[in-house]
Design a protein that fits this description.
By secondary structure, this protein is of the alpha/beta class. It has 2 domains: about 110 residues, 3-Layer(aba) Sandwich (Cobalt-precorrin-4 Transmethylase, domain 1), CATH 3.40.1010.10; about 100 residues, 2-Layer Sandwich (Methyltransferase, Cobalt-precorrin-4 Transmethylase, Domain 2). The chain has 8 helices and 10 strands. It has a 5-stranded parallel sheet with strand order 3-2-4-1-5, with helices on one face. The chain has a 5-stranded mixed sheet with strand order 6-7-10-8-9, with helices on both faces. α7 runs antiparallel to α8. It is elongated.
């Protein structure tokens, strides 16, 4: 039975691509990727010409069946996401689950570790990380209030993802429930305009209002 490699890719800085990751992507039969355009740019940078097959949150059972077929034909496959480690707040997690259910122990699944926005943010937060809870992106509408009620109740360090368009709304939700809780917001981690903001939700909001807020954000709330 062939192997599925779960390959981490850079979250911004191409220099974070490991030699093992490059060698793996060069050697497999097909690369399963969230967006072929994004992964195509990465492969071009390293002169890798392995064929790609898209697999994202809207991929149906027919696409999953295609992955089954490729493995049954004897192809080694690599799974990547647009940035970071696949399966972590990423549709690749569903694929790995389905492959385990379908093939069981017959399929070898190998992690090729590397960049992760969660771990990168925790490492510079200055907050306890011996125990933390990662909650991904907050719901946009349904379940949003319940989500932030839960965040406020968790005593461990908490990590969230957020986009440019909702960062202020998310900070407002945190401020309404935990106005004194310290947090760190990392913007554009590993990229040219990487910035870390520290303080309470209201203090970080004020700092963001006076600067450019384009980019992706990771929020780390200190343990209680």
């Amino acid at each position: 039975m062939p192997t599925l490699y779960v390959v981490a890719t850079p979250i911004g800085n191409l220099s974070d691509m490991s030699e093992r990751a490059k060698a793996t992507l060069s050697s497999v039969g097909t690369i399963l990727c969230e967006d072929t355009r994004v992964t195509g740019k990465l492969l071009h940078a390293y002169k890798i010409d392995t064929p790609m097959l898209s697999y994202h949150q809207h991929s149906g059972q027919s696409k999953t069946n295609k992955v089954f077929e490729l493995l049954e034909e004897g192809q080694d496959l690599a799974l990547v996401t647009d940035a970071g480690t696949p399966s972590i707040s990423d549709p690749g997690g569903k694929l790995v689950e389905e492959l385990v259910a379908h093939f069981g122990d017959e399929l070898t699944i190998v992690p090729i570790p590397g960049a992760s926005a969660v771990i990168s943010a925790l490492s510079v937060s200055g907050f306890p990380a011996d125990e933390y809870i990662f909650m991904g992106f907050a719901p946009h509408k349904k379940g949003r209030q319940t989500f932030f009620d839960r965040v406020a109740s968790i005593k461990s360090t908490v990590v969230l993802y957020e986009s440019t368009h909702r960062i202020f709304k998310t900070l407002a939700e945190i401020d309404a429930r935990s106005p004194d809780r310290l947090l760190m917001v990392g913007r554009e981690l590993t990229k040219m305009y990487e910035t870390l903001y520290r303080g309470t939700a209201s203090q970080v909001t004020a700092a963001l209002e006076s600067s450019s807020i384009k980019g992706e954000f990771v929020i780390v709330l200190r343990s209680l």
